[in-house]
Amino acid sequence: MERALDDRRTGIEARGGGLERWIDTNRRWVMLAPAVIVLLVLVAFPTVYMFTVAFQKFNPAQMGANEFIGLDNFARLLTDQKFHNALKNTLVFTAAAVTVEFGLGLGFALLVDKYLQRLTFIKTILLIPMMLPPIAVALNWRLLFQPRFGVINDVLDRVFGLEPVLWTSKTGTAMISLIIVDVWEWTPFVFLMVLAGLAGLPRDPYEAADMDGANAWHKFRDLTWPFLKPVIAIVVLLRVMDAFRIFDQVFILTRGGPAGATETLSLYLYKIAFQFFDLGYASAMSLFMLVLTIGFSTIFLLRMKLD
Question: What does CATH list as the number for 72-306?
Answer without folding.
Answer: 1.10.3720.10
